[in-house]
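Revision sheet: structure tokens.
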Amino acid sequence: MQIIDSHVHVCTENPDYPWAIDGRDSPTINANPDDLIDLLKKNGVRRAVLVQYIKYRWDNSYVAHVMKTFPSLFWGVCRVDPENPESPDQLSYWTEIHGFQGVRLSPQEDMRGDWFRGPFMEPLFKRAATLKIPIVVLTKPIRLGDLARIIDRVPDVNVVIDHFADCLNQTDEDLKKLLVLARYPNVYLKLGHISQHSSEIFPWRDTHISLEKIFQTFGAERIMWGSDWPFCLNHMTYAQSLAYVLDGVKFFTAADQEWLTSKTALRIWK
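Predicted:
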């Protein structure tokens, strides 16, 4: 089984790759790609998806550099400015010139995320569909209705929702907002942020009830594992993140585990 981690981050203090103006403070956790590669090898992970670290904002140069340095190990998901009418062209640039295979949007819950309802989303989603790359969405349950309205207008683009939109062990109403999106066959989910929603130790069994509802609704074929390294280390070890899928959830069959750790990601990232 070719294990794929669908969600990791890298960053550097190298001045050649400066932080964005509003994100100059460095992360508190080491995100060196060499350390990541060692960790992947130790845990039998064959490839990983580099998700642009938010403090770089729209300059994806460092992730592009790491992708080009280790082309057999990484795919990349970039960011573009969602409030800029030129965001579709920005996406084409990072995709066609630098080889990114996805774009991430992070609409916040409050009015700062209202651009997700604005006029620039449909052109951006349409460009992603033309480029045949997924839109990766980091958000909370309150924005899932907005996402559904965009998908209704642009139904031919793959959408990957990060970390189950943090719906695990939330209210039943929040969970329903996620489950209803299963009606769109092009909506996929990342399994992540598990321990953050648990009051127990590994394997966080109090998350299994909500997880099983999600699993039964979407199916393993539309769910992929992502560690969120290095930020997962605030709550668990990297090995525990993977072991949750391979050993911690008893209703996952061997076939399910293969979809969750490999085959679903390969439907999105070729």
